[in-house]
């Protein structure tokens, strides 16, 4: 039997010198994608693909490919018609009968559904049968060309059409389409092997209207017009072997800009945005130069294309030789705030060209290497471009994010290893989704995964040095580029795939260092480290006694053993000490260098060699210590809580030159509201050479301290005099100078100070009147006429400041708030907001930043009870057609309203939008915002929690989001937040037919339920034959035997099979089906009242008991296709293999049971079941035919088929379905006995 699948253990075992071992029984070498018709009106695509494959085993008779939502018309192999089956279990994960509503059950079913079609395990949705005429050809391992005609109609994922509803032709309207998706989603728009590890060369052809441009991967070879000049075809060739997952497409009326600095780089944008495009991309060549220089390696492709499109799925998506960006990243030279963000996006996409597109990964468990390397070199670019301070600030930001996430959720595992008994050391940290596959991950987990990956690369760099690190990258790239130029040696191409073990091997070869402990700590297990540090100074011995405790019992933490750096700043200078953290040692004695304080006034040397005068009056007279820092280089993924006196934090803030230390000091000083802290913060605000982000953080800290010291505070409100001195007129201190944003540092400070000042409160907990007047004056006298930069972000921050000054309304005698009896201060704020909103309609600001701030401010006024709480304004701003930032801000307000007012109506409105909104990003954001700010949680009672909501969300994640992995995982996250892992509390208790033991992955039949299946149902009485059949059904499970155990790993195939055939019974004359098949084949699919259809002794049915775990599909077209081809090829082709070909029969039998577990299970019960089946087969069995006047939907018929009686239709139709994983199609009607979850199935030997 050919290895059509490989068990995951084999996939992920250490790949030594043997290189990559493919899970597929063939090697793909070349693929042609030709899309010859794109209709923007109907949002449809028609085309074909041609895959050139070399079989790697003899007797290959089934080929599995990936394809979702494509309608497949015909498949030809070497010009011979081939029969095929389409089966996508992810369309509906749990079946309609299943009244299970717990997330554990869903997650297991979803993980199984995804792996059933996972190309990395050799699976796929499309299974093609090699015509028998080609078997000899295949046995000689000769080339096969598979030609597939397909179409796409209104795709819900993978390809996104943007068609503005305005006047004019499609090009004039700016209509465009582009490919998008998360991880490997290419299968959504053409049939392929959608795996990062299957590389091949590509020929891509797209025929579009003459006014459109098609941009795709590789080199544009030629553009050919049709005779009537109305259409043209773009021909692209990609000669560097690339995986299908890195293929992309963008078609639209793009304006084209050839990069003036690098002619092989081309930029594309939508009409009228060319000036912005020129400015935005003018910097890209510097990024190229930087990467090529540090990697000492040329950019791997012959060209690079950037395409800016609307309604982007993510801001940056990198594909082979091209990247797709959101058009919202474009900006002019007047915009300050967006510039660094856009440059970062460009740099990120370029880093992924090297690691991610050119170098791909062997399997999902190696993804961390690619994300880590591309994130790491992007960090190096950032350090060079924005400076060390910005870089260290970014590292601290990323570290804080990952630490907070892991402590909250229980950990991020970079290198999930499956099988091989490793599960014990490597427990999956996440209960509500499987981490074994990218498509089952929560989106937040995936972003944190990328963040942790680059931080771990930085830890490796700390261990082996940057020089060696870059040598390792260079080695990977040069091996890959050598391999990519081997045109006819496709076995060499696996050098372009990176694996964890290969990467570690390169590191040890290049550096000679063993980093295994580091990998074991951060890559092979999840969790971060939590340190608590405290110290005492022992004057007698002149030592610092440092105590470092660890918390490794909380979720998301782990124990750290190894070196830890501690920096001590003393009077005589700064000293580094490396402590060895052992299993149980807590106390460490660190000798001090300085004798305690001398009276001689002398300068104190700092870490960077600078010497400064300090006022030492605050410090402890006995000790020479100024401050202590634990792990200053962030060389451990950790959270440090260290205790030191307030004066030490103040010294650290003032004199430590590292921005991370300053930020730590600022957050610590919030706990010490003293005049000394106030002074230290004010000094930092005034220091021009201090990093601008530190000064911004100091503003907010100062506001908090001022509020804590409100009774003792003297002088004007915090920061006011400072702001007046820096930004206001000398003669008239309440009038601000005309804007001049030439110094970006002072621009950011000028923007932030008023926002922080607005947080000040007086003794009555109100915002001081003079602060509000001051902010209103800033707005009133704002003058941007002489400024070369736009002030839209500045004005938006002024509105944020107004919102910050709002305090809860005091209501007198419950009077209703109207505009007449508004508090005068609030009236002023409301007038400003209204004026700004009206101005925005006439003169919109860049990215509508002002509208966004106004909407937030209105929500603040509503929440504080100043204006009536009403979501209608936000709902109108959230409609499709507004700019995306406005929509998100409005939706955020609606989500908040839903929570505060417990409004079921708004929750329904939001969920409807999740289902129907045209923009994938907006749908994703709504779920994300509901998860972050949920209307209720699993631990609280809420009127919103009811059965209808559970059903609606279940349906959304079960079948409503099958076209977008990210959306489905978002729905799962929301379900988890609202209802938790187990069955939602608002549901009635189920009567379970099975007792699930999830720990052992076993399910035991509940014996008490069987008799109920035969309970005197009227339907059953009408049809005595089915009744007897059911009685017979009890035998295998009668109490004489032990409870039958069901192996949960084998549960998917049977269910698919049965629901497929029930479907056939249910829709005997679906117009769609009859259209695609000749009349005579109909009899094969509909049970007739004839003796020939009864069970005959010749068939040897074989039992296979399985649990419902895989999904059926809602989509009918793929089924129609397959039935049609099944009919086109003689039916016998599928069912009967030639008797002589023994191996095929064997293969035919076990085709889907390739995993060892399944095989074992199957053989265990085989003989017993065969015997039962044979006896049962002899019994007479009359089937009500739909033609016989009685509905095929009758419950007894359902129950009979589900009880596994040898339904003749099942047997006849089996031939069309090849194997037990037939079609999965949902039944519209629930059967009466829907609580029983037992399925039994025949696989038929011939």
Automatic annotation (TrEMBL):
Family annotation (SUPFAM superfamilies): ARM repeat (SSF48371), Leukotriene A4 hydrolase N-terminal domain (SSF63737), Metalloproteases ('zincins'), catalytic domain (SSF55486)
Give the location in the cell. Answer: Nucleus
Q: Name one Pfam family in it.
A: TPR_TAF2_C
Q: Which domain of life is it from?
A: Eukaryota
Q: Which GO terms describe its cellular component?
A: transcription factor TFIID complex
- Domain Transcription initiation factor TFIID subunit 2 Ig-like, which positions? 526-644
- The chain positions of domain Transcription initiation factor TFIID subunit 2 TPR repeats read 646-1004
Q: Which UniProt keywords apply?
A: Nucleus, Transcription, Transcription regulation
Q: Which GO terms describe its molecular function?
A: chromatin binding; RNA polymerase II general transcription initiation factor activity; transcription cis-regulatory region binding
Swiss-Prot/TrEMBL GO biological process terms:
RNA polymerase II preinitiation complex assembly
Cross-referenced CDD domains: M1_like_TAF2 (cd09839)
Residues covered by region (Disordered): 1-23, 1086-1118, 1136-1211
* Ranges of biased composition (kind: Basic residues): 1144-1171
Biased composition, class Low complexity, residue ranges: 1202-1211
> What does the UniProt record say this protein does?
The TFIID basal transcription factor complex plays a major role in the initiation of RNA polymerase II (Pol II)-dependent transcription. TFIID recognizes and binds promoters with or without a TATA box via its subunit TBP, a TATA-box-binding protein, and promotes assembly of the pre-initiation complex (PIC). The TFIID complex consists of TBP and TBP-associated factors (TAFs), including TAF1, TAF2, TAF3, TAF4, TAF5, TAF6, TAF7, TAF8, TAF9, TAF10, TAF11, TAF12 and TAF13. TAF2 forms a promoter DNA binding subcomplex of TFIID, together with TAF7 and TAF1.
Quaternary structure, per UniProt, is: Component of the TFIID basal transcription factor complex, composed of TATA-box-binding protein TBP, and a number of TBP-associated factors (TAFs), including TAF1, TAF2, TAF3, TAF4, TAF5, TAF6, TAF7, TAF8, TAF9, TAF10, TAF11, TAF12 and TAF13. Interacts with TAF2C1. Component of the TFTC-HAT complex.
Family, as annotated: Belongs to the TAF2 family.
**Official protein name in the record:** Transcription initiation factor TFIID subunit 2
Q: Supply the source organism's classification.
A: Eukaryota, Metazoa, Chordata, Craniata, Vertebrata
